[in-house]
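call fold(seq) -> tokens
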Amino acid sequence: GVSIIFISHKLKEVLEICVEIVVLRGGKVAGHTQPGRATEESLAEMMVGREVLLEVDKTPAKPGEPVLRVENLVVLDDRRLEAVRGVTLEVRAGEIVGIAGVQGNGQTELVEAITGLRKAESGHVRINGQDVTNASPRRVTQAGVAHVPEDRQKNGMVSGFPVKDNLVLQTYYVDPFAGGIVADDRAIEESARELVERFDVRPRNIFARIGALSGGNQQKVIIARELSRQSRLLIAAQPTRGLDVGSIEFIHKQIVRMRDAGAGVLLISAELDEILSLSDRVVVMFAGKVMDDMPIQSATRNLCGLLMAGVDPKTATREVNQV
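ret:
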């Protein structure tokens, strides 16, 4: 007998749970419908004000040389227990490798070890041929890596800084944003205005404190900063978390654009739909181990679901977490 107001960006959930649907856009009611009269496509169009492509439009990948090699990597979590247990994988230029798995199966620690945010106990990380095992985040960046972190508040931004300064956190010390030890504010502001416009960050005020923006717009600033740099490898952890369908469509296009320009992409997402839509190859993790590494043509929803639960259909056995 309790009335429920359910708020979500996830259209499948809305259609499955709700009896009445109200769509908001720009602070106003953009439409009112019911599940029996609505589809994901019609809801998305109401949310954005135009037709939205819910399926990722991309051509087949043309993989080149490896830009990331992870070999027998072992990483501990905050409890000093093994979160990553001998993981080996690679990402090649011109392909998107998606890591699928239920949250908490080592994906976070794996990305933190690759990007210099967490020390590895053993194993190796090589980026563009350089051994960057346990290197600093700056050295990883200088090796040609763009990183969209899972925790934007902790690792992606400085909440007290304005938008313009957050857009150069990785490049504030190099040309054209600095001359020696002096920042070039004009170059920083010109670049910020262009990126805020291109990535549809709202409000358009580059002097606004990023901590005052909505979570989705904070994410857009981070995406703008990382995807606008010339990088050989993009590591994107939960890149569309908290974004509306229009923004998700835009971010997916940008990720595919980077792949088509020759970058390798390592995508980590809790959304299996996102993994299956974007990836050219899928790696499934369970309990800190790689259960399978397969081309997208073999990665069915049922197979990924079983592997994510620790069940290997090839042997009909369940992986047991010994930790």
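The mean pLDDT is 93.
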